[in-house]
Protein 1
Amino acid sequence: MKKTTEVLRAVCVCLIFASTAQARTLVVTNTDDHGAGSLRNVIASAWPGDEVLFDPSLDGELIVLGSPLLVYKALAIVGRGADKTIIDADSRGPVLRVRVPFGTVHISGVTLTGGLTDGDGGGVDARGSLRLTDCVVSGNVAGGAGGGIYLRSGALVVSKTTISGNTAGYCGGGLYLQSAEATLSDSTVARNVADNNGGGIFSRETTLTLKSCTLSGNSARHYGGGIFQCVHGTITLNGCTVSDNSSDPSGGSIDSRSSGHVTLSRSIVGGQSGGSDCFGGYRITSRGYNLDSDGSCHLTHPTDTRDTDPILGPLADNGGPTWTHALLEGGPAIDAGSCPGEVADQRGFPRPADVLVTPNADDGCDIGAFEYQPSPFPPNVEVVGDLYDLILVLVGGDNDLVAPLQEAIQILEDGDSSNDSEAVGHLQAFIAEVEERRGWTLSGAQADRLIAEAQRIIALLNLGGSSVGNS
Ligand SMILES: [Ca+2]
Ligand SMILES: [Ca+2]
């Protein structure tokens, strides 16, 4: 009892000290494993709340460890980018062992690699609150659970991070989460392997949220190539792409067991190389605008697309900090989603990006983590597109009215002005359609406005205008 009281008193003193002391900035100045200026030494000498930086002279140099780094206090470890600050455990245990009863360990701009352990957590073995931003966790091996990251009893926030090429002898090739709250955003979990369940992610008694993430090419010997969920807990996927995962018997991508529950919003689950898209589909709730490739994900919302090939490119560097699956031209996920309030896809590219000639399910947003970016239009296409938009505002999607404009847009898209006369012909057909509707579905004023705008575009095209402006 006395000992417990003393420990509590010491903890309180530490907390008061931490809350009153000014956070300091400490700098790692060499790649040594021990001694002044080494990462290990800087972490050991840091106070809770301190920030650990890296001298630019270390960019691209490996920091090779002789044993795991122990982080027992809330720190910010701020690397200079995952391609510049690389911490390699050299197969001598996990890279990091995190035990924080208070506060959060925040690691950014770092690669964690080369971890090897017989136990759990090949790359990171954590209890407490951990945040990873702009990191790479790659090439780590655990004989037990959690090849990349093992988190038990705590919170995990991951953003703009790649967790790839990790292996677990048991469950959770990329991540093993138990009794935790975890959020992954703008991140990719790829090509991880579990010898049991949950190739990408194993989630147990955990609240897991994935937003604008890609799960690709993960595999499990048994269940849940992409994600395996068991016991209690919830998993929510919003704007994610889950593809090319495999497991032998079932649930190539998402496998939900016992009393867990999965919610899908605007996500793609498709193209599994082994097993079905989903297993335990009755534990999956669709919030709409989802797509699966084999009809196994219990997609019951009227805006869902079932049993349809999403037509994806391979996992690749498509821009942004993490790799993604591109939507290929003409694919069914383009403009088939809805993403009110969002401004960027997983890569940071603009979203929604409306493809003019593709009908929108709602706001022109795509399904999944990737937003297809239409090629920049020649100026004339923009102007005809504005006329198209004007029709939508005035009378909604009238097929006979928009069809000649779609024809004109397709002709103008190549930017070759020798075809402008053909586009003019379609605009004249458009004017004839408007006249047909005058006093019927269009008021006189609406018809006058549309015809005036079409005639203005025709006049400028006849003049060989390459940029007709918008005023
Ligand atoms: Ca779109
Ligand atoms: Ca569209």
Protein 2
Amino acid sequence: MTEENVLEALKNVTYPGFTKDIVTFGFVKDIQIIDEKNITLTIDITSSADEVKSQINTEATAQMNKLGFEHVGINIVAPTPPKQVSNSVSGKNIAPHVKSFVMVSSGKGGVGKSTTSVNLAVAMAMQGKKVGLLDADIYGPNIPRMMGVDGIKPEIQGNKLQPLKAYGVEIMSMGSIMEEGAALLWRGSMIMKAIEQFLRDILWSDLDVLVIDMPPGTGDAQLTLAQSVPVTAGITVTTPQEVSLDDSRRSLSMFQKLHIPTAGIIENMSGFICPTCDTESDIFGMGTTEAVAKEYDTEVVARIPIEPAIRIGGDTGMPVTYHKPDSETAKRYQEAARNLLVFIDKVNAEGRADNSAVQPTTPPGVSACSTSAAAAKPAPAKTEGESCGTGCGCH
Ligand SMILES: Nc1ncnc2c1ncn2[C@@H]1O[C@H](COP(=O)(O)OP(=O)(O)OP(=O)(O)O)[C@@H](O)[C@H]1O
Ligand SMILES: [Mg+2]
């Protein structure tokens, strides 16, 4: 009996709630075959839930028994469950029925945030999660078109709105509420109100994950979101060119200042998959993002090539992940979604999503100011009407 045989058998143990097994996730850390009848395993998991531990214990023991081991010692290493914290330090959550929040951000526009948000949300729904997709890009809402629900108006129930639904994902967007083509001049205080209403006044179900597609940059929308709900995971989307990487540093630095756990970087438009010859070629450079990820102690969670099917999927409201599930791109989005779910699980188990450090210090009714510096070091309270250089409600 070899370690390979043992690993092969453990591949039959799927991680509870996921389709991948504990070996593929890399959770099996140590195998000690003492003799034909005795074995000890160390399995390092990301969840602190007792059900997860006991299911893995039972299934792994059964697999080892099948191999002939009679005495199976399983040491499951799990994060310590989060301590019960009092409200005064646990921060603010105006959408408590949503388990986890994912902020999809980028330093600059047009790098593929909305495309990433759509495909990650669809992938997680296909993996059995209850997923919502909030288009917080109030300036240029694209999600309705990309999800094929443009022109559909949400139903009103009382003074709340029912989210739209497509591909198993609940959706809300400013584009579904405003008249088509209408432009609003957004003041900081209006941005705050819009983001808060999206979280409070939409009848989201009890979601596992709400994916939030942000406007480009690091401004009022990002700060308001971080102050309103404890964001579980931040994802930065970038393209591989150096100029884009400079912007993605800003986005990663914003996560740090807003105390948002960083899930990683998605390198979009990384290489080109030629639809007729099925080969991949380097256009903007590939793999340049790795160094930036290291700088910010995070990782590149996916490299998504330029593929015409992605753009067509976006334009026609038929996301590639759902409509071309066998394509290379769909597989990469599915993989990124799986890894994101593991990351979320870990952050929740460790109780790391906490926005208490970024609460505004301004009095009620006065908008918090918008610069990321303001988030890092809260500005002194201002009274309404007082002039200020930067920040929402000040222009
Ligand atoms: N990997 C890709 N391959 C091909 N086309 C892509 C890819 N990623 C994005 N696109 C296309 O590029 C355009 C811009 O993408 P997208 O709208 O997702 O960017 P964005 O960062 O959300 O932009 P904005 O900052 O304006 O909101 C879209 O037409 C989209 O379909
Ligand atoms: Mg967008």
